[in-house]
From TrEMBL:
Domain of life: Eukaryota
UniProt xrefs under Pfam families: Ribosomal_L13
GO terms under cellular component: ribosome
Name of the coding gene: LOC107064177
Stated family: Belongs to the universal ribosomal protein uL13 family.
Protein name per Swiss-Prot or TrEMBL: 39S ribosomal protein L13, mitochondrial
Keyword terms: Ribonucleoprotein, Ribosomal protein
Classification via InterPro entries: Ribosomal_uL13, Ribosomal_uL13_bac-type, Ribosomal_uL13_sf
Amino acid sequence: MSILRRAQQWSTFTTTWHIYDAKWQDPYKSAELIKHYLLGMHKPIYHPLNYCGDHVVVINSKDIALRGDEWRKRVYFHHNTYSGGASWTLAWELHNLNPTLIVSKAVYRAMTGNLQRRYTMQRLHIYPDENVPEKILQNVSNQIKQLRSVPIRLDHIPKEEVEQFPKLLSYPEDFVLK
């Protein structure tokens, strides 16, 4: 067996660490992507009863983006097992309490039908910003590509670049808006 084939085989059976930037991403579409890496579905040796998944580190979970007016309309249910212990929390309230919970709940929901999802969730590490412990960053060896690109704000574009951008129409010096 060649050295290259042996390295490919070793990488198939090892547990790798992936990093995913959740900035401006839909947590429910991102959860489907993250689920594949947590369960090991991207590996050729995947089987639902095998332990072949990887670790995923999610950063910038406080900057997630929900579609439309889901911040005001999406509701999360919780029951504390006591009589009358049911409660419903709006998405924006839950996000203000803990910015990592919406991503965590989305990934947990995406893994329906998986009998091991409680243990699989232990390999998911979520951080509200880019401050990740150095011990965890040393393990990361792969980056998961974002589903949609993050737009650049106009106030972050240099003034020279804005002035050099081609104009469709240039107003005369003495032009007055009425």
